[in-house]
Input
Amino acid sequence: MKFVKHVLYSVWVVGAVALVSSCGDRTATGPAVQVSASRVSRDSTHGKAAKVGGKRGGLLRCTVNSDDDEDEAESEAESELLGPEGGTIGSGRAKLVIPQGSLTDTVTITMEVIGDTVRAVRLLPQGLVFQSPAYLTLSYSDCQSVNGNPKRIAYTSDAWMILEYEQSRDDAARDEVTGELNHFSNYAVAW
Output
């Protein structure tokens, strides 16, 4: 009888540990892996219709102009120390405007232009949340149009999967799209 109680107790402990360890934060504890944007041409969300929130779309394919530096197209980062007074940070074909009052503390904001076949940015520190929306503007002047569909800002994973579309305004006359951001992550131009 003592053996049976010991086995049942052991099974209970293992089950409790498994249950507790399955809960909680699922973010990676190691460094983020950056996937080359050239892989995006093989992804299901690029060039084909992906359905997110009932809307169809995908990431726009973009090219690097011959007068651009290759390093600029792959990875260009800018950092600024911004606080409650707000501010603007720009990097290449991207601009982020943080209105006054959006931040409660002073923080180093980093905008990294990433990707070689998409117009995308990584905004750091990852997961930073705003009190009121910030505005990200991305140029798509060297991107392929998809049936004249309006462009929008998409929140993406590191593997270029569209997680959601942000509230966006397409300025077709200037080949720019501006999206409202509530937090920092990876964002790209989508249709």
